[in-house]
Amino acid sequence: QVQPVESGGGSVQAGGSLRLSCTAPGFVSARCGMHWYRQAAGKEREWVGSLDRDGNIRYRSFAKGRFTITKDEAKDTVYLQLNSLKPDDTAEYFCYCSPPGTPIEDWVRGPGTQVTVSS
After folding, report:
1. CA 12 from centre of chain
2. What is the pLDDT of residue 50?
3. In angstroms, rounded to a whole number, what is the distance separating the alpha carbons of residues 6 and 88?
4. I need a surface site. Which of 5, 50, 68, 70 has the fewest CB within 10 A?
């Protein structure tokens, strides 16, 4: 089972940047789709963006133009570059691995990394 672990969160001022990492040994051989979600305090979890197993990338509308997903297969890592951060981006960010044919309720999630953006 691929177990993602996120890192790279922190506290920044509005307009700043962070790069989040999701290290997931075996995600390539397992042909995982890799997905970023976030959850702000008191709010529902929301999808941020995905890298599918064919290398296609999709973003939620709020992430387009500001957030970028990349990967480094040699490091078993997927990145989420966060630019032009806003206070509304404050949330815990999670990375999920979705092997082929796995229903969403069985996706494996990492422990998360906190992003706090101050105005």
Report:
1. 18
2. 97
3. 20
4. 70
Strands 33-39 and 91-98: antiparallel
Nearest-5° Cα angle at 12, 109 to 34: 25
C-alpha torsion sign, points 11, 87, 115, 43: positive
User: Does residue 1 have a pLDDT over 90?
Assistant: no
93, 9 in Cβ contact below 8 A? yes
The per-residue pLDDT for range 88-109, each reduced to its tens digit, is 999 999 999 999 999 999 999 9
d(CA 118, CA 113): 16
